[in-house]
Protein backbone atom coordinates (compact mmCIF):
# COMPACT_ATOMS: atom_id res chain seq x y z
CA UNK A 1 0.00 0.00 0.00
CA UNK A 2 2.98 2.32 0.40
CA UNK A 3 3.32 2.58 -3.37
CA UNK A 4 -0.21 4.05 -3.54
CA UNK A 5 0.70 6.70 -0.99
CA UNK A 6 3.90 7.46 -2.93
CA UNK A 7 2.01 7.84 -6.22
CA UNK A 8 -0.66 10.00 -4.56
CA UNK A 9 2.03 12.23 -3.05
CA UNK A 10 3.96 12.58 -6.31
CA UNK A 11 1.02 13.16 -8.64
CA UNK A 12 -1.50 14.85 -6.35
CA UNK A 13 -0.32 16.05 -2.94
CA UNK A 14 2.93 17.74 -4.01
CA UNK A 15 1.37 19.67 -6.93
CA UNK A 16 -1.59 20.75 -4.77
CA UNK A 17 0.73 21.97 -2.01
CA UNK A 18 2.86 23.81 -4.58
CA UNK A 19 -0.18 25.66 -5.95
CA UNK A 20 -1.52 26.33 -2.46
CA UNK A 21 1.77 27.95 -1.49
CA UNK A 22 1.76 30.04 -4.66
CA UNK A 23 -1.87 31.12 -4.20
CA UNK A 24 -1.36 31.92 -0.52
CA UNK A 25 1.25 34.48 -1.55
CA UNK A 26 -1.27 36.49 -3.60
CA UNK A 27 -4.57 35.77 -1.85
CA UNK A 28 -5.40 36.82 1.68
CA UNK A 29 -7.50 33.74 2.56
CA UNK A 30 -6.80 30.20 1.46
CA UNK A 31 -8.00 27.09 3.26
CA UNK A 32 -7.48 23.44 2.40
CA UNK A 33 -7.87 20.02 3.90
CA UNK A 34 -6.53 16.57 3.18
CA UNK A 35 -8.96 13.68 3.21
CA UNK A 36 -7.63 10.15 3.72
CA UNK A 37 -10.02 7.35 4.52
CA UNK A 38 -7.95 5.28 6.93
CA UNK A 39 -4.28 5.09 7.84
CA UNK A 40 -3.22 3.08 4.78
CA UNK A 41 -5.26 5.03 2.24
CA UNK A 42 -3.83 7.76 0.05
CA UNK A 43 -6.37 10.52 -0.49
CA UNK A 44 -6.79 11.81 -4.02
CA UNK A 45 -8.94 14.35 -5.80
CA UNK A 46 -12.66 13.72 -5.35
CA UNK A 47 -12.44 11.11 -2.59
CA UNK A 48 -14.53 13.32 -0.35
CA UNK A 49 -17.37 13.85 -2.86
CA UNK A 50 -19.30 10.78 -1.78
CA UNK A 51 -19.38 12.14 1.77
CA UNK A 52 -20.25 15.68 0.66
CA UNK A 53 -23.13 14.36 -1.46
CA UNK A 54 -24.39 12.04 1.29
CA UNK A 55 -23.40 8.78 -0.41
CA UNK A 56 -23.16 6.75 2.82
CA UNK A 57 -26.63 7.95 3.82
CA UNK A 58 -28.08 6.48 0.62
CA UNK A 59 -26.18 3.19 0.68
CA UNK A 60 -27.37 0.10 2.52
CA UNK A 61 -23.75 -1.12 2.56
CA UNK A 62 -22.40 1.87 4.51
CA UNK A 63 -21.75 1.56 8.23
CA UNK A 64 -23.34 3.81 10.84
CA UNK A 65 -19.90 5.36 11.38
CA UNK A 66 -19.66 6.27 7.68
CA UNK A 67 -23.16 7.76 7.77
CA UNK A 68 -22.34 9.83 10.85
CA UNK A 69 -19.11 11.05 9.27
CA UNK A 70 -20.98 11.97 6.08
CA UNK A 71 -23.41 14.06 8.15
CA UNK A 72 -20.47 15.84 9.80
CA UNK A 73 -18.89 16.60 6.40
CA UNK A 74 -22.23 17.76 4.98
CA UNK A 75 -22.78 20.12 7.91
CA UNK A 76 -19.30 21.57 7.51
CA UNK A 77 -19.79 22.24 3.78
CA UNK A 78 -23.32 23.62 4.23
CA UNK A 79 -22.11 25.91 7.00
CA UNK A 80 -19.35 27.21 4.72
CA UNK A 81 -21.77 27.71 1.80
CA UNK A 82 -24.29 29.50 4.00
CA UNK A 83 -22.00 31.64 6.16
CA UNK A 84 -18.73 31.76 4.24
CA UNK A 85 -16.94 30.78 7.45
CA UNK A 86 -14.34 28.03 7.38
CA UNK A 87 -13.93 26.20 10.67
CA UNK A 88 -10.36 25.09 10.11
CA UNK A 89 -7.12 27.12 10.08
CA UNK A 90 -6.06 29.33 7.22
CA UNK A 91 -3.38 27.79 4.99
CA UNK A 92 0.20 28.69 5.88
CA UNK A 93 3.15 27.36 3.90
CA UNK A 94 4.82 26.15 7.10
CA UNK A 95 1.66 24.37 8.39
CA UNK A 96 -0.08 23.41 5.17
CA UNK A 97 -2.72 20.78 5.87
CA UNK A 98 -5.41 20.07 8.45
UniProtKB/TrEMBL annotation:
Q: Which UniProt keywords apply?
A: Glycoprotein, Signal
Provide the organism lineage as a comma list. Eukaryota, Metazoa, Ecdysozoa, Arthropoda, Chelicerata
Q: Does the keyword Translocase apply?
A: no
Name of the featured protein: Putative secreted protein
Q: Where is the signal peptide?
A: 1-20
What's a Pfam family this protein contains?
COesterase
Family matches, as InterPro entries: AB_hydrolase_fold, CarbesteraseB
- What species was this sequence derived from? Ixodes scapularis (Black-legged tick)
- Per the database record, which ranges form the Carboxylesterase type B domain? 4-96
Q: What Gene3D superfamilies has UniProt attached to this entry?
A: alpha/beta hydrolase
Amino acid sequence: MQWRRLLADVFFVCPVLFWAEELSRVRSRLHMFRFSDGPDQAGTFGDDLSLVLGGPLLSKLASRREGDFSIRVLRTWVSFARDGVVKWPQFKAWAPVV
